[in-house]
Design a protein that fits this description.
The structure holds two protein chains of two kinds.
Chain A lengths: L7 H8 L3 H36 L3 E2 L1 E2 L6 H11 L3 H34 L1 H14 L8 H7 L3 H27 L2 H9 L4 H39 L4 H10 L3 H29 L7
Antiparallel strand pairs in A: 1-2
Chain B lengths: L6 E10 L6 E11 L4 E5 L6 H9 L6 E6 L2 E2 L7 E4 L11 H12 L3 H14 L15 H13 L5 E5 L7 H18 L2 E5 L3 H7 L2 E5 L4 E8 L14 H39 L1 H5 L1
Parallel strand pairs in B: 2-10, 3-8, 3-9, 6-7, 7-8
Antiparallel strand pairs in B: 1-2, 1-4, 4-5, 9-10
Classes of the chains: A mainly alpha, B alpha/beta.
The structure holds adenosine-5'-triphosphate and magnesium ion (MG).
């Protein structure tokens, strides 16, 4: 069914630009602007770094040991496809994923129950408040002694790092649930279980997802730190080992990899949040 | 007229706990709503109207006296009493249809039946075409209509409404009154309606109770014998205006009494200041 398309309107539009067409072009340009500006800033950053490294800049800051982006890039081409590097990335992802999922599975129900029942709050919350200010990294020595394997102790540290942001945000979300919605649910015949499922969980969901995003970030911080201190593998270990082995381009490579992994993880959480909360899509 | 939906409020009183002595919100109220009857409660702000309705809904227990529906004392919320709140109380994470189906879902009614019943009720309230919208896309009037329909979906014996149209503009309010009247006549359900709008009370009700200032008692019971169907432009008849004057007078007395203490005190203070010339110094 190849119908010849009438061409006159297109020609007309091309020869005499209408106000609408001009407006559309301005819209397209306006959409391109953020991208252009971002590219500009990143390019400037890389160029300055390249220049500083190439000239071995030594003016208070010392760039003589800092590899230039071009060298890092060349090194990445060689290292990234290697089995060892891939293995380090995968091991770190496993640790973060496990620690994070366990933290979410523990923190969200705990937050829901503490938020609903004062007696649970009185029982659990003071303990949380004592443990919370201790950074996950401070747990490294205890964790090494506590758990049989390296892998388990690092997962545990990640778990601790992710647990508290998720718990606190779940609690915050519980407090934000409009009490009248609970009354409405009860007057429509909802029991305790249904109130959790149908009111508190979705009501607290936006805050829970904020907690998950923060928890994921802290999870990565914790896993990298733990791997640097005590690991035998993982991308944190890779980065620290590169320093010890004077493989300076690998340090930057490790940093970039960590940054990208963090970026992908938080994008995944945001995507999950959009799927789980379709009612927020309209806003 | 149906033979169920009898609300008996017998020497009801309600105190709220406080740091010192309990605060009496409702002193002594006796009200009867016969099956299929439309009864309104008017009274000055803070006289205990919501407290009374919340006790019928089963959200708060009576301190004194007895509240019963069809001879059964109220001990907890239940789907046999539909409740419509002053503030919007739709679940933001549920579509209009899901909101309306909520009570049926709690009852264990199957999805197909739920959908059919929801559709019938939504059409009664003029909401066809909005079933799949989330509440934040609806106007205030639509939200309250969904709220009414949701409360009716489980087939309650009585419908309780706490200033449901308080937040709406005058035009929307009149349309809502018409819709509520239609639904009430169609279903033959008993209604207990709280409002501070005298015209609204007269337009809708078979009987109006006037409450005193806090702690609330029944000050007067006014039967509204205006013929039905009542038209919006029938609100200027002599009968209507007489009722309006009577109710307004009763409420004004109580509102003045409610504010009496503060007002008298403030005026006395002003007099003293005027006499002593303090105001002149200030000015
Ligand atoms: N949970 C509570 N704890 C303590 N006092 C309360 C509580 N709820 C209401 N009160 C008090 O009880 C009195 C009656 O309140 P209620 O909300 O029933 O009045 P109302 O007639 O509905 O007022 P309005 O017309 O403003 O809605 C008020 O003085 C109020 O301050
Ligand atoms: Mg009230």
């Amino acid at each position: 069914m190849d119908m010849p398309m009438p061409t006159e309107p297109a020609v007309l539009a091309a020869t005499t630009p209408s106000p609408e067409a001009a407006a559309r072009r301005r819209m397209r340009l306006a959409k391109l602007r953020p991208l252009a500006l971002a590219t500009l800033a990143i390019a400037a950053f890389l160029a300055a770094w390249q220049a500083a490294s190439a000239t071995h800049l030594d003016f208070f800051l010392r760039f003589d040991n800092i590899p230039a982006p071009s060298i890092v890039f060349a090194r990445a081409v060689a290292v990234v496809p290697s089995a060892d590097f891939l293995n380090d990335v995968i091991v770190s992802c496993e640790r973060v994923f496990l620690g994070f999922v366990l933290a979410a599975l523990a923190a969200v129900p705990t937050g829901l129950v503490i938020g609903r029942y004062p007696i649970a709050h009185e029982l659990v919350f003071p303990l949380c408040e004592i443990l919370r200010p201790v950074p996950a990294i401070a747990w490294v020595p205890i964790s090494i002694m506590l758990w049989p394997t390296d892998f388990q102790s690092i997962v545990f540290i990640t778990f601790l790092g992710a647990f508290f942001p998720i718990l606190l945000n779940t609690l915050l979300g519980m407090r934000r649930v409009d009490p009248v919605l609970v009354l409405a649910a009860r007057s429509l015949g909802a029991g305790e279980g249904a109130i959790f499922r149908e009111v508190y969980l979705p009501g607290a969901m936006p805050a829970i997802f904020t907690g998950l995003a923060v928890g994921m970030g802290v999870g990565w911080v914790s896993v990298i730190a733990a791997e640097m201190i005590s690991g035998q593998s993982g991308i944190g270990y890779f980065t620290w080992a590169a320093y010890s082995l004077i493989q300076y381009p690998d340090i930057v490579l490790g940093m970039v990899a960590i940054g990208l992994l963090g970026l992908v993880s938080s994008a995944a959480i945001r995507g999950l949040g959009r799927l789980a909360m379709p009612w927020l899509a309209t806003q | 007229m149906r033979d169920s939906g009898l609300i008996e409020i017998d020497h009801f009183g309600l105190d709220y706990a406080s740091d010192g002595a309990p605060i009496a919100a409702v002193a002594d109220v006796s009200i009867t709503v016969r099956p299929g009857e439309f009864v309104s409660i008017v009274g000055p702000s803070g006289c205990g109207k919501s407290s009374l309705l919340n006790a019928v809904a089963g959200f708060v227990p009576a301190t004194r006296g007895r509240v019963a529906v069809d001879g059964v004392a109220i001990t907890r919320p239940g789907a046999d009493r539909g409740m419509v709140f002053q503030q919007y109380s739709l679940f933001p994470w549920k579509t209009v249809r899901q909101n309306v189906e909520f009570g049926l879902k709690m009852k264990g009614v199957g999805a197909g039946t739920r959908e059919r019943m929801a559709r019938t009720l939504l059409s009664l309230a003029g909401l066809i075409g909005f079933e799949d919208q989330y509440p934040d896309r609806l106007s205030g009037g639509m939200k309250q209509r969904v709220g009414i329909v949701r409360a009716l979906a489980t087939g309650p014996k009585v419908l309780l409404l706490d200033e449901p149209f308080g937040a709406l503009d005058a035009q929307t309010r009149q349309i809502m009154q018409q819709i509520l009247t239609n639904i009430w006549q169609r279903l033959g359900i008993s209604v207990l309606f709280v409002t501070h709008d005298i015209d609204e009370a007269i337009f809708l009700s078979d009987r109006v109770y006037v409450m005193t200032a806090r702690p609330g008692r029944i000050k007067a019971e006014v039967p509204i014998t205006l013929p039905r169907p009542r038209e919006v432009d029938g609100m200027m008849t002599a009968d209507f205006l007489a009722l309006r004057a009577e109710l307004a007078g009763l409420i004004r007395e109580e509102s003045l009494r409610a504010m009496g203490g503060e007002l008298a005190g403030g005026l006395a203070g002003l007099d003293v200041m005027l006499r002593d010339g303090e105001l002149a110094d200030l000015l």
